[in-house]
Design brief:
Elements lengths: L22 H16 L16 E3 L9 H17 L5 E3 L2
Parallel strand pairs: 1-2
Length: 93
């Protein structure tokens, strides 16, 4: 398990499955999600903060891909994005 990225303690983590989606399509969905989140209004008491979304993307390599391994690869991509500057999407290699 990778250590928590700075600011990660308040992060929400969710898994989204996009059956039959190519990683490039998943990346386009992630980019749209980032755009929508960035447009959300922030409470007046928190104007110095902004909402960001970092997304790790992993695709099924073959039919034998294990779900735990897939989640692990997506998690690694997520942390690579957080350490690389946040508010981005990273596709697992």
């Amino acid at each position: 398990m990778l250590p928590a990225a700075p600011g990660c303690d308040r992060a929400l983590r969710r898994i989204v499955a996009l059956p039959d989606a190519h990683p490039k399509d998943a990346q386009m969905v992630a980019e749209r999600l980032q755009q929508k989140v960035s447009e959300l209004a922030v409470m007046e008491a928190m104007l110095e903060h902004r909402l960001t979304v970092t997304i790790g993307i992993a695709g099924v390599l073959n039919e034998a891909t294990d779900l735990d391994a897939l989640i692990h690869r997506a998690n690694q991509a997520l942390y690579a994005g957080k350490y690389g500057g946040r508010n981005r999407e990273v596709v697992s290699q």
